[in-house]
UniProtKB/TrEMBL annotation:
GO cellular component terms, A-Z: cytosol
Record keyword Nuclease present: no
Source species: Streptomyces yokosukanensis
Name by which UniProt lists this protein: Pyridoxamine 5'-phosphate oxidase
InterPro entries per UniProt: F420H2_bilvrd_red/Heme_oxyg, Pyridox_Oxase_N, Split_barrel_FMN-bd
Amino acid sequence: MENTGMDRRTAGERRRDTLERLVAERDIWVATAHPDHGPHQVPLWFLWDGRAVWMCTGAGSATARNVRAEPRVHLGLPDTADVVLLHGEAECFPDDEVPGEAAEAFCGKFGWDPRAEEGAFLYIRVVPRTVRAWRGEPELRGRVVMRDGAWRE
């Protein structure tokens, strides 16, 4: 792995930078797996509510089918020079059962309300249990910034 010449960030700096990216970014890679059909990965729009990642997809999509069968998911922000990976379990909300505050925040960020669309949508909420963040080889050690749902200092 290439050394980017960047100084190694402290755990607190990595946490701060990770939280800033979770608020600012639009897309996240979602990796799921189905017991019969295997792995599946797609990018989805996402919202960070300060505790969890919220995404939305068609209720009949492979992602929706997979998280219903196997809720463990991996999420990744799309910059390989500034890696942020999250692992957690998905909680599913049909569009007519999603908490209003989450749906309104999602709509506010993207200007799109899946609840108003024809066809069914599924909101997916993931509270991360583990978060890893690193920029290049100097930060491989200490890349776990959240373990068992608790941010590391």
